[in-house]
Amino acid sequence: MKKLTLLFTLAVGLLTACGGTKKNNSDMENGNETRVRLETNLGNITLKLYNETPLHRDNFIKLVKEGVYDSTLFHRVIKNFMCQAGDPNSKTAPDTAMLGDGDVGYTVPAEFRTPAIFHKRGVLAAAREGDDVNPEKASSGCQFYIVTGKKFTEAQLINMANQQNQARLDTVFQQLARKHMKEIFKLRKAGDNDALLELQDSLEAQARAIVKQEPAKTFTPEQIQAYTTVGGTPHLDGNYTVFGEVTEGMDVVEKIEISKTNRADRPLNNVRILKAVVVE
Q: What pLDDT does 31 receive?
């Protein structure tokens, strides 16, 4: 962690990115997963919904049965990353419309099940607003994405985990520093660098103590196996709720993934969910 300079940078910087209805279902009670079929103009995609994330499962089923996803577009597609859909505004949107802000008026509480459930290729996950306006990481009530991702080496995963651990430490340190901004400005104005360094050391020690109480970011053997063989988006683990996976039609997802897109990542040729149905 940088000394002194970090406090200077922080000081200057301060002067100047839906609760669903529950459903009783005997299959769910027996442990069987519900499946949903997305019938698109490029082919069908069958999704298995996880029972481990019941709020997202039940909400998705509810929206499917209400026809919310019928005629919506895959409005944001990024190769080697994901294909996003579910914006109600996309049903009748003109080709020039900016999409991604549509919702159903509520959010769904996060249901992170990492590391057991993670962002391997082919999983279904909920989109959400950024941490700055959504610190609880609550999911969009309707928008979702299917992960395509890419493959990583084990060394890359280890490095990613280290970076995420450092980022968490930096975030906690910055939060503590903000509580001492008046003192920091006063010491800077007085040119008391020794006191600034002493304060920095104290805040850094506090940050390390706080972070130490939390599990360090690591990847399990199962995650490493998946991310190095089939791929995915490991940096999203623990930040977005994964609540299902593709069981049939990954070839259709791949067709969507290679769509030519505009600067807003919207496919130039509409990829539309004609109908979404619960497969009984």
A: 63
Dihedral sign (CA 135, 139, 145, 146)? positive
> Do the bridges between strand 107-108 and strand 34-40 make them parallel or antiparallel, or are there none, so unpaired?
unpaired
Distance CA 103, CA 143 (A): 7
Upstream peptide bond of 221 is cis (omega within 30 degrees of 0): no
List average pLDDT for each run of 10 residues in the chain, which is 280 residues long: 38 36 41 92 98 98 98 98 98 93 97 96 97 95 98 96 92 94 93 94 94 88 97 96 98 98 96 94
pLDDT value of position 64: 98
